[in-house]
UniProtKB/TrEMBL annotation:
Protein name according to UniProt: LacI family DNA-binding transcriptional regulator
Coiled-coil regions listed: none
Protein keywords: DNA-binding, Transcription, Transcription regulation
InterPro entries xrefs: HTH_LacI (IPR000843), LacI/GalR-like_sensor (IPR046335), Lambda_DNA-bd_dom_sf (IPR010982), Peripla_BP_I (IPR028082)
PANTHER family, sorted: HTH-TYPE TRANSCRIPTIONAL REGULATOR GALS, LACI-RELATED TRANSCRIPTIONAL REPRESSOR
Entry's Gene Ontology molecular function annotations: DNA-binding transcription factor activity; transcription cis-regulatory region binding
Annotated ranges, domain HTH lacI-type: 3-57
Pfam families according to UniProt: LacI, Peripla_BP_3
């Protein structure tokens, strides 16, 4: 026979209504009582009927996740799997599930979001990106629908709760690290120019060069997708210049892995011929050859904080708009070396 709320209430010596409130994580119930009731639920093997509870609360217990492009492409980059791990951690206690967009174009993604909202398929949405002039954020704002952005919004940031790093300062610090090693010919490999993370990191790169009185060269700035192939294509273009860069700031570790493979294929050496500072500090950054100097943006924490503030907004529609900045740190490894002037052989 299936275990019921009444069985849990009897063993925990509380009213059935108290068990229901514990399941809903009601603030009216003390943490001591919640702990006791949850322990009894585990001992008895009781699993709440979340579907019935959702119907009663007129809630879907579902969070929508929106990628900047199709999920199959996004999952090639470990940033998304790591941020989703953080989101899942935040959702577990609240018994929410995820619904993800599958659109392959901006139009299909927008259509997915409209269906989520108008079809009442989700209680709130997390955007895993921030894009220039994004119709998705405009739609969500106009419909007063709970959502959180991972990244700095392009417009109306004061109206949107968002979780981000200070990408401008992080890129400035990464570029300064290369400048302090004596490099002056520093290139930048970024992602899609419509993504705010790319623009913010490009801004920091440029600011560091301006502060150092080094001219900004358009030929040294390349934009590709945040993929292995993106790094490969970008560095091929840079290294065929008449005066190629001696160092790179690369906006993503997966792109940097592509850079490393291509440089090795050219018979060149990192960091002897090219120094690299990367972003994200993915697991393979430390396993690369050589290990990558990378700016750790604490991706897991981005996901945890995003879902925390989204649920707060779902549960209280008067929850104030917040800007949450997650700290970063430069993890120095052996992909960077001091600039050495190369002698010209006759």
């Amino acid at each position: 026979m299936a275990v019921t709320i009444k069985d849990v209430a009897r063993v925990a010596n509380v009213a059935p209504s108290t068990v229901s409130r514990v399941i809903a994580d009601s603030p009216r119930i003390s943490e001591k009582t919640k702990k006791r009731v949850r322990q009894v639920m585990v001992e008895l093997g009781y699993h709440p009927n979340l579907i019935a509870r959702s119907l009663a609360n007129q809630s879907t217990q579902t969070i929508g996740i929106v990628f900047p492009n199709s999920g199959d492409l996004a999952f090639q980059n470990p940033f998304f799997s790591e941020v989703l791990r953080g989101i899942s951690e935040g959702l577990r206690e609240k018994h929410y599930v995820l619904q993800m967009t599958t659109g392959k174009s901006d139009e299909e993604i927008f259509d997915d979001v409209v269906k989520m909202v108008q079809g009442k398929r989700v209680d709130g949405i997390i955007l895993l990106y921030s894009k220039v002039s994004d119709p998705v954020t405009d739609f969500l704002l106009e419909n007063d629908f709970p959502f959180v952005v991972i990244g700095k919004p392009d417009e109306r940031a004061e109206q949107i709760t968002h979780v981000d790093n200070d990408n401008v300062t992080a890129a400035l610090d990464g570029t300064n690290h290369l400048l302090h090693l004596g490099h002056k010919r520093i290139g930048f490999i970024g992602g899609n120019k419509q993504l705010m993370v790319t623009l913010n990191r490009l801004e920091g790169y440029k600011k560091a060069l301006i502060d150092a009185n080094i001219p900004i060269l358009d030929d040294y700035i390349i934009h590709e997708e945040f993929l292995l192939e993106g790094g490969q294509e970008a560095v091929k273009e840079l290294m065929t210049l008449q005066s190629p860069p001696t160092a790179l700031l690369v906006a993503d570790d997966l792109m940097s892995l592509g850079v490393l493979r291509t440089i090795h294929g050219m018979g060149l050496n990192v960091p002897k011929d090219l120094s690299i500072v990367s972003f994200n500090n993915a697991l393979f950054a430390q396993l690369a050859s050589p290990p990558l100097t990378s700016i750790d943006i604490h991706i897991l924490e981005l996901g945890i904080e995003a879902v925390k503030h989204l649920i707060a907004r779902i549960e209280n529609r008067k929850e104030p708009v917040k800007r949450i900045i997650i700290p970063y740190e430069i993890i120095v490894r052996s992909s960077c070396g001091p600039y050495v002037e190369k002698s010209i052989e006759s």
